[in-house]
């Protein structure tokens, strides 16, 4: 058994360190208790402030935005307003707790600069979103082709454009990609042309076939009478005449008319006994209804 003996100086030194730690702990406890009401008040104000912001944003969405703002700028402005209001709440809480807001603003600016440098792509998407809202190459509910994606614009957000494709997929396209690529706005001109081609033998009377096809389109749903469907001869080859058929429709009915108009033409030609010319040979075939 080993017994360690302490000198008087060593005991005094240990007691001094203990006294300092005890004093520091006591001071911290006193300061924390004195500071606790401010901390609780700050947390409470932060919670109530965010609840109030949520309430104000609901009022904005239900009352102001629907009546005053277009569908394009509504979510964009709403997100910016939501961020600004929450930032005001945070700065108010910091001031109540006792931090110097000027020092915090400098720190926030430094952090913002660092984040901005690391998120240059996102800032580019933000700038592109502003350009989209100003120049309006497309709007909400427009049928578009953006970056190879075809569908209906559901929302123009701060950083992205949301498109619902024809097969009902939600496609999120960064605004930077959208603005830097070719944009096809299908809705802009109010009506679209549907292109169809058939081959007829020379023995068929073109004027008779032309009238049959036009009558078929009069019975086809969503095919427009104005502009009037066009039926003409595009070319002559060794097999017969190449006929172009151009019905028109509204953008939202394009794919429906694309298929139903072909079915209508096939049925009408079959009912009238019109023969078709096959490209791979000179033999003619009957069209059944």
How would you summarize what this structure contains?
By secondary structure, the chain is α+β, with helices and mostly antiparallel strands. The protein has 7 helices and 12 strands. It has 3 domains: 101 residues, Orthogonal Bundle (Helix Hairpins); 48 residues, SH3 type barrels; 94 residues, 2-Layer Sandwich (Alpha-Beta Plaits), CATH 3.30.70.100.
Folded structure, characterized:
This protein has 289 residues and is α+β, with helices and mostly antiparallel strands. The chain has three domains: 101 residues, Helix Hairpins (Orthogonal Bundle), CATH 1.10.287; 48 residues, SH3 type barrels (Roll), CATH 2.30.30.60; 94 residues, Alpha-Beta Plaits. The protein is 54% helix and 18% strand. A five-stranded antiparallel sheet has the order 4-3-2-1-5. A three-stranded antiparallel sheet has the order 7-9-8, with helices on one face. The protein has a two-stranded antiparallel ribbon with strand order 6-10. α1 runs antiparallel to α2 and α6 packs across α7. It is rod-shaped and about 115 Å long.
Keyphrases for this structure?
rod-shaped, 289 residues, single chain, 54% helix, Helix Hairpins, SH3 type barrels, alpha+beta, 7 helices, 12 strands, 3 domains, 3-stranded antiparallel sheet, Alpha-Beta Plaits, 5-stranded antiparallel sheet
Order of helices and strands: HHHHEEEEHEEEHEEEHEE
| Beta-strand residue percentage | 15-25%
Q: Sheet bearing the most strands, described?
A: 5 strands, antiparallel
Oligomeric state of shown chains? single chain
Q: What is the straight-line distance between the termini? A: 113 Å
Radius of gyration using CA atoms only: 37 Å
Low-confidence stretches: none
- What's the mean pLDDT score? 80
Spatial arrangement of strands, main beta sheet: 4-3-2-1-5
Alpha-beta content class: alpha+beta
**How many beta-strand elements?**
12
Helix content: 40-55%
For the record, the CATH architecture of the largest domain stands as Orthogonal Bundle
Indicate the overall shape: rod-shaped
